[in-house]
Amino acid sequence: MQAVLAGFGLGFSLILAIGAQNAFVLRQGLRRAHVLPVVLTCAISDAVLIAAGVAGFGALAEAVPGLDLWMRIFGAAFLIWYGGRTLRAAWRGGQALTAGEGAQSLRAALLTCLALTWLNPHVYLDTVVLLGAVSAQYDDRLAFALGAMTASFVFFFSLGFGARALAPVFARPRAWQVLDVVVGLTMWAIAAKLLLG
Q: In angstroms, rounded to a whole number, what is the distance separating the alpha carbons of residues 164 and 36?
């Protein structure tokens, strides 16, 4: 039980920080657009990465010289593009929340979700490397992994479906502009950190 709780606590704390993936899930939840497929995609992706980390995949980053650098460059390029797109939406403004309105197709939403998940180097550092390394401290690594996976499912379902409570706030176009500016600047800040760090 201790390993499950430790995995849950560490997994939840790592995923809590606002990032590209979380901002996208929040946006889908506010729009009530493809929420279940998006949160399932995020949570299952995390579960796969956590399983890989606990199984020892974290050693790959150390074994392949330069892999970390290429992951950072590619991830930063994607975040710069996505952040620019979001800031352009804020500049245009005029959005207000109507459930389902202006939503992407299911295919586009899932492709965006997968890109924000699998092209983000921080995801690998958090789930594969860090959780993988910490799990080695526990005799029951499977229980640790299950705790961390459960944290991902709890977080993404809470974020995606809990966003509905904020719907009245986002009925105003100005709230969407503020959210887009915050998300866009967050993406660029993460990209800068990837390139400089």
A: 13
Helical segments of 55-196, H only: 59-63, 67-92, 106-118, 121-123, 131-135, 141-162, 173-196
The candidate with the shortest Cα–Cα distance to 75, out of 113, 117, 41, 34, is: 117
The neighbour count for residue 105, using CB atoms within 10 Å, is: 10
Chain segment 81-104, per-residue pLDDT in tens: 878 887 888 888 765 555 455 567
Separation between Cα atoms, residue 50 and residue 162, nearest integer Å: 24
**DSSP secondary structure string, 2-61?**
HHHHHHHHHHHHHH-S--HHHHHHHHHHHHTSSHHHHHHHHHHHHHHHHHHHHTTTTHHH
Token digits of residue 121: 């180097």
* Other residues' Cβ atoms within 10 Å of the Cβ of residue 95: 20
Greatest CA span in the chain, whole angstroms? 55
pTM of the predicted model as reported, rounded to 2 decimal places: 0.71
